[in-house]
Amino acid sequence: MHLLLLSTLLTLTPAFNEVQSKPNIIFIIADDLGYGDLGCYGQKIIRTPNLDRMAAEGMRLTRHYSGNAVCAPSRCVLMTGKHPGHAFIRDNKQFKPMEEGQYPIPLETTTLAKLFLQQGYATGGFGKWGLGGPGTTGEPLKQGFTRWFGYNCQAVAHNFYPTYLWDNDRKVSINNPAFSAQGKLKPEEDPNDPKSYARFKGNDYSADLINDQALAFI
Fold first, then answer.
1. Are β-strands 147-151 and 164-167 bridged in parallel, bridged antiparallel, or unpaired?
2. Residue 66 placed within a domain
């Protein structure tokens, strides 16, 4: 039995003798995706056939509201079930003096992943975390995940071609040059010319690497 969470991707698997009684679960969070951006909810301009099929064959949670308008607070609400007014994370602030990562949720926090663990699931998270930097109480492996691959810090996740990702609690280098993903085009560069964006691309696309690890876990 699996639970998979994307933008944090959480995957759960039950013990062998429980497989028939408990379902595998793939839970996908699409960061900054509006309710009306999908074809299954009436979108007529942008085509989303794969997501539409998942909605048709899976479960729609039409009252599963986002707890906040920005990344870390909404993830905190999702993972803890707390009302935003009682949540530990209220904004996207970096946790200084650490090099990366946001403020951590406390070690004793009850999270979705911990609850699934208690029910015999194996839990895997893949994508972006943002609820506690490396070595803090909030890192994924301390909050109920038995497997993690992706970004720890949401600020780093603004770059699709980072120089590293996190494999559980290990920082692994990937084949990309270092550059600022927030850079601007030069005055002489044409914003309508794809060549103008070449310097913002690397070799290893993070979404592909994360997807491969998620599929391997499943």
1. antiparallel
2. no
